[in-house]
Structure formats: structure tokens, C-alpha cells
Amino acid sequence: MPIAERAWELMAIAVAPTQQCQGLGTALLQWVIDAVRDSGASRLEVGTGTFGYQLAFYQRAGFRVSAIERDFFLTHYPEPIFERGIQLCDMLRLTLHYDRSNP
Ligand SMILES: CC(C)(COP(=O)(O)OP(=O)(O)OC[C@H]1O[C@@H](n2cnc3c(N)ncnc32)[C@H](O)[C@@H]1OP(=O)(O)O)[C@@H](O)C(=O)NCCC(=O)NCCS
Would you kindly state where each structural domain of the chain is located, as residue ranges? Predict the structure, then answer.
């Protein structure tokens, strides 16, 4: 969804658990990156947890950490979220800049 002039946020991306780790997520993410670039955007943002494979998933596609929103998962979700036994508390905001040679 659009969040500012020429800036979009990827709100959610998911692949069915039985179909993960086959490259589908990377292909979906690349489709979104290309579509948003083609719309004339200067940046694409996404929020994710502060740990886990998702961080590598996004950074491999060119996203970089741009901010941290402390307590995001504590204040925006009705139930606690755990990944690998660790509670998600803070959200990292990652940004892909299209018009910088160093993203
Ligand atoms: C994130 C997600 C969309 C990636 O989709 P995918 O089809 O599995 O992606 P790919 O096959 O292109 O794999 C991307 C990398 O993530 C890793 N990965 C994917 N699912 C994983 C899982 N359940 N556990 C550990 N690593 C996982 C893959 O191993 C791969 O890394 P590698 O190439 O170094 O092995 C998918 O795992 C998913 O739906 N996760 C749950 C929802 C979610 O976390 N969405 C993102 C919210 S920020």
C-alpha cells in the first residue's frame, strides 16, 4: 500500500508452509519489487521481526534496516507472537531504495 509520495509498503507476504523453501517467496518478492519500481516509486518498505530467516530473505533482495519500532508486536497484536520460542517484541523497518546505487 502507498505510505507516502513515491513510497510503498509491502504489508504481508506468505507462502503455504508445505510449499516453502522452493523459491516461491523469493519470486513473489521480486515481482513486488519490480512492480513497485515500475510504478515510479523511489522506495519500498517492509516491517519484520528483529530475528529469524525473514531478515536474510529481505536483505538478500536488497532491503536494508532503516528503523526500529520498539514494542510494535506487543502493542499492535492481541496475542503474543513466538518464533522458535522467542517472543517477538520489536519491529525492524527495512527499506529498499530504488534510486541509490548503495541501497
Ligand atoms: C517468508 C516466506 C514468504 C518465504 O517464502 P519461501 O517460498 O519459503 O521463500 P524461498 O523458498 O524463496 O526461501 C527464502 C529463504 O527463506 C528460508 N526459509 C523459508 N521458509 C523457512 C522456514 N519456515 N524456516 C526457515 N527458513 C525458511 C529458505 O530456506 C530460504 O533461504 P535459503 O535460500 O538460504 O535456504 C515464507 O517462508 C513464509 O510464508 N513465511 C511465513 C510468513 C512470514 O514470515 N512472512 C513474512 C513476514 S515479515
Answer: 42-103
The model scores a pTM over 0.90: yes
E strands present in the chain: 2-4, 7-10, 43-49, 64-69, 82-83, 86-87, 91-97
**pLDDT exceeds 70 at position 103:** no
Q: Is the pLDDT reported for residue 36 higher than 70?
A: yes
Distance (angstroms) between ligand 1 centre and the Cα of 94 equals 16
Mutate to test the pocket of ligand 1, among 20, 63, 92 (most ligand atoms within 8 A of CB): 20
Position 77 confidence tier, pLDDT thresholds 50, 70, 90: very high
Q: Which CATH superfamily is domain 42-103 in?
A: Gcn5-related N-acetyltransferase (GNAT) (3.40.630.30)
